[in-house]
Structure formats: C-alpha cells, structure tokens
C-alpha cells in the first residue's frame, strides 16, 4: 500500500476564508516531565492561547477557546490552583474588547474541550452559540443528568446549555487532509471543525483557510503541548500504574492522541499550513511582542 501525502482542497473562485488573530488568555505552569519525553523546556510557564476568527465575507465572529478566567481559583480544586499557578493578566473577554470586539457580539464560541484552562468565562458571551465535540457531553454531566463534579481538570464553570451545539458523528461528514472526520461549518470551505480526540473525549480542532489563495491554519488546542511533539522530536510522556497496570497520561487515550499528533505532523508538512497549539511556548516567545494579537492578524503563510 502506498502512503500518499495528504493535500488540502484548492480554493474556489472568490474563496471565503478566515482572518485569524491570537488572543491573550492567561498563563499557567505545566509539569513538563509529565507531558513530554525529550529535551525538557526550562520554563514551566506557558500561555493558554485563544483565537479570534473573522469570516472574510459574512463577517461572522468566531472565538476558539476561552482561556483561563481571572477568578479560576474559585472554580477548580485547590490542588490544581496550587500546582498550575494560573496567572491572568488579560482574559479573553478583555483581549477581545481591547481589539474592538465586544464579547456579546461574538457569533460562535468553539471549545476544543472542557478543561479548566480553556473554558474561560462563558457568561460574557451572551448571544454566541457554543460548539463542542459530542464526547464533551460526559464532562458536562448531560448524559447522566447528574450534577457535574469539579475534578482535577474539569472546573465547575457553567456552559450556557440553551445555546450549546454538539458536533455529532453525522456532522463530521467530510474528510480533509489527514483528517477523516471533519465538518465544513459554514458550508463554504472557509473553516472546518475536525475531530481531534485523544487528549479528551470529543476534543476538536479548527482547520481554517487564512487566505483566498491556499494558506491554512490548524488551531490544535491541547492536541499536543509543545511544537517539538508535532515534529517528532518529543514524545508523549506516560507511566504505568503499579497497582492497576493502566497507562497514566495527560491524554485520556494515549494511542488516539498519538495518532492525532501524527495527523498534525503530516498536515504541517503541507506547504502554507501553520499548526498552532494552545500552550505553545516557542511560538509565544517569538510572537508575544509582534502584531499578531487582535486587532492585528496572524499573517497567512506565504510560499
Ligand atoms: Zn486539556
């Protein structure tokens, strides 16, 4: 069997695309040794990046992930706050407002998954539809009807249940590049929600065109925690529980997470495709003082 390098669909005439801006959304400390095998970064502090996407034609406003809320310590177990040292100088809502976008004007909020450092303060997005992977239902407690219990990773922050849309298996009805399950959310090829499970059940990514002539970006959430994992220089860290023999890993399903990382790797090898994960310390160091944060845009990759 020959393996063919994936490709992405060419643009149509007058192709719609998304303007993408980074949003400051707080920082946290991560235990690198529990995340990656390889040369450990020295600094444990990483950003929890969020993104603003603006449709080139309809002007629909999308936010991907809501970062960390300032009063997060009221919503997570004390052990989490003590070990992760969340630090929010600017929340997503403040980053949007500073860039001229009131949170109440946002049309769609896509949450990669429901871990506490990605759900921010949903209550400020008063009219947005919230889009989540179907696997997130379990974390919300909607399947059992029981009250959600804050765990080490899941906070007690509420998502507006009357404006929730779950991306179902039948929504994920197109294949794009290396991803067999994706959804063309606006029906014009400008932005796809892709199934990127592994880190958490129902974890989703956004794959968006960033120009009318063939540039793309993948917003990877927690699909990986360092860009060297995408190139293969670092691997996913794990251990084996001595009592149960179970794999202990920051990703819910290590093997599925690794398959998803391989997909990101092949995607990143396509010309003009940028891959950006939420906690990327390398990108952040290089770009924190550049004009890539709202109201500015992340420039589309050129040849
Ligand atoms: Zn996570």
Description of the structure:
- The structure is a single chain.
- The chain has 303 residues and is an alpha+beta fold.
- The chain has one domain (18-287): Ribonuclease Z/Hydroxyacylglutathione hydrolase-like (Metallo-beta-lactamase, Chain A, 4-Layer Sandwich), CATH 3.60.15.
- The protein contains seven helices and 18 strands.
- The chain has helices at residues 32-35, 78-84, 92-98, 137-140, 227-231, 254-268, 281-287, and strands spanning 18-23, 27-29, 36-37, 45-47, 50-55, 61-64, 108-110, 129-133, 164-167, 174-176, 179-184, 191-195, 204-209, 216-219, 235-236, 239-240, 247-248, 273-276.
- The strands form five sheets. The protein has a six-stranded mixed β-sheet with strand order 1-5-6-7-8-9.
- The two termini are 31 Å apart.
- Residues 145-150 have low confidence and may be disordered.
- Zinc ion is lined by residues 113, 115, 199-200, 222.
Indicate the topology.
Elements: E1 18-23, E2 27-29, H1 32-35, E3 36-37, E4 45-47, E5 50-55, E6 61-64, H2 78-84, H3 92-98, E7 108-110, E8 129-133, H4 137-140, E9 164-167, E10 174-176, E11 179-184, E12 191-195, E13 204-209, E14 216-219, H5 227-231, E15 235-236, E16 239-240, E17 247-248, H6 254-268, E18 273-276, H7 281-287
Parallel strand pairs: 6-7, 7-8, 8-9, 14-18
Antiparallel strand pairs: 1-5, 2-4, 3-15, 5-6, 10-11, 11-12, 12-13, 13-14, 16-17
The structure holds zinc ion (ZN).
Residues 113, 115, 199-200, 222 line the site of zinc ion.
């Amino acid at each position: 069997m020959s393996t063919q390098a994936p490709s992405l669909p060419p643009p149509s005439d007058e192709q719609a695309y998304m303007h993408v801006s980074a949003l400051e959304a707080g920082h946290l400390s991560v235990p690198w040794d529990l995340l990656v095998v390889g040369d450990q970064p020295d600094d444990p502090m990483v950003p929890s990046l969020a993104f603003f996407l603006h449709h080139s034609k309809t002007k629909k406003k999308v936010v991907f992930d809501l970062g960390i809320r300032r009063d997060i310590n009221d919503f997570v177990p004390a052990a989490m706050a003590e070990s992760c040292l969340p630090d929010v100088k600017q929340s997503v809502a403040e980053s949007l407002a500073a860039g001229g976008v009131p949170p109440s004007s946002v049309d769609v909020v896509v949450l990669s998954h429901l871990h506490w450092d990605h759900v921010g303060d949903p209550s400020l997005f008063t009219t947005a539809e919230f889009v989540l992977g179907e696997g997130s239902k379990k974390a919300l407690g909607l399947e059992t009807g029981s009250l959600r219990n804050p765990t080490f990773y899941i906070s007690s922050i509420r998502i507006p249940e009357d404006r929730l849309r779950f991306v179902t298996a039948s929504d994920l009805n197109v294949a794009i590049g290396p991803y067999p399950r994706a959804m063309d959310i606006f029906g014009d090829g400008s932005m796809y929600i892709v199934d990127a499970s592994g880190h958490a059940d129902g974890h989703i990514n956004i794959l968006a065109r960033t120009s009318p002539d063939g540039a793309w970006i993948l917003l990877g959430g927690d699909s990986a925690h360092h860009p060297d994992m995408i190139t293969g220089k670092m691997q996913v860290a794990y251990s084996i529980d001595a009592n149960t023999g179970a794999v202990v890993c920051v990703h819910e399903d290590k093997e599925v997470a690794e398959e998803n990382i391989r997909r990101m790797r092949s995607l990143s090898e396509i010309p003009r495709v940028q891959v950006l994960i939420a906690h990327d310390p390398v990108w952040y160091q290089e770009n924190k003082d550049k004009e890539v944060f709202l109201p500015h845009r992340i420039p589309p990759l050129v040849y």
